């Protein structure tokens, strides 16, 4: 069974804090993705990575950065959290096929 | 540029009734198309996908979708709704030119409510 795990299901942080969201996949997939999900807006791509140490900006990269030091792990970093980054964050991975496999999501609240 | 439009942000049906969730796409080349389902407080789970084989695609939980090139549509159907089908459904498209990265473009989602 394919598995994508995210480090936290729920997270509460304060404005200005540095926030790390971790995602791990056990399928040896090349490609990994970070999305945020907001009501009425669907899923919006923040960043994706197609190989170790390689990354590309998605549609809404502002205020975020990413790190991929190992193939199985893709981290999303909020350098200085703001209230408008309160959202559901979803990680996904895919191999050479097209099916994306998703983690359970992290619901982040920034106060 | 590719895009996906899901018609209707909320759909309500009675238990046992037909489920029809609409999805239209735009793509300059034949696309790969997907339907995902998201249950409350969970990630997305693949329901079915079209990758240029048969135009009628069967998925899990009794769902199916038909690719209609002339209408640029990929509507999701289920003959008889069950209470457990209540969830949010997302249609997505992948440009074959970028298929090696696995990037998808998602629609805005349709929330399905099933009434007893």
Q: Can you walk me through this structure?
A:
The complex is a heterodimer of chains A (111) and B (116). Chain A is an all-beta fold and 111 residues long. Helices cover 0% and strands 58% of the residues of chain A. Chain A has strands at residues 4-6, 10-13, 19-25, 31-38, 42-51, 54-57, 64-70, 73-78, 87-94, 101-102, 106-110. In chain A, strands 2, 4, 5, 6, 9, 10 and 11 form a seven-stranded mixed sheet that branches. A four-stranded antiparallel sheet of chain A has the order 1-3-8-7, with no helix packed on it. Chain A is globular. In chain B, strands 2, 4, 5, 9, 10 and 11 form a six-stranded mixed sheet that branches. Chain B starts with a strand and ends with a strand. The mean pLDDT of chain B is 90. Chain B has 116 residues and is mainly β. Chain B contains no helices and eleven strands. Classes of the chains: A mainly beta (111), B mainly beta (116). Chain A binds chain B through residues 4, 9, 31, 33, 40-43, 45, 48, 50, 90, 92, 94-105, 107, and chain B through 9, 32, 34, 36, 41-46, 49, 51, 90, 94, 99-104, 106-109.
Provide keyphrases for this structure.
A: 111 residues, 7-stranded mixed β-sheet, 4-stranded antiparallel β-sheet, globular, B: 116 residues, mainly beta, 6-stranded mixed β-sheet, 0% helix
């Amino acid at each position: 069974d394919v598995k994508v795990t995210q480090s936290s299901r729920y997270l509460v942080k304060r404005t200005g804090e540095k926030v790390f969201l971790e995602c791990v996949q056990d399928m040896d997939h090349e490609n990994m993705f970070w999305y945020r999900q907001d009501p009425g807006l669907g899923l919006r791509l923040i960043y994706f990575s197609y190989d170790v140490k390689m990354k590309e900006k998605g549609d809404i990269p502002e205020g975020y950065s990413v790190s991929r030091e190992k193939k199985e792990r893709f981290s999303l970093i909020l350098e200085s959290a703001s209230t408008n980054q309160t959202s559901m964050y979803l990680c996904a991975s895919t191999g050479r096929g097209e099916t994306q496999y998703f983690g359970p999501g992290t619901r982040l609240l920034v106060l | 540029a590719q895009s996906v439009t899901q018609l209707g942000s909320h759909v309500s049906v009675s238990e046992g009734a037909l489920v029809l969730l609409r999805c239209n796409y735009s793509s300059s080349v034949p696309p790969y198309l997907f339907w995902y389902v998201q249950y409350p407080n969970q990630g997305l789970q693949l329901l079915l996908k079209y990758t240029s084989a048969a135009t009628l695609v069967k998925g899990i939980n009794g769902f199916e979708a038909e690719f209609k090139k002339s209408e640029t549509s990929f509507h999701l159907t289920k003959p008889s709704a069950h209470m457990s089908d209540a969830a949010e459904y997302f249609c997505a498209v992948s440009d074959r030119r970028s298929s090696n990265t696995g990037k998808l473009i998602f629609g805005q989602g349709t929330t399905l409510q099933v009434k007893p």
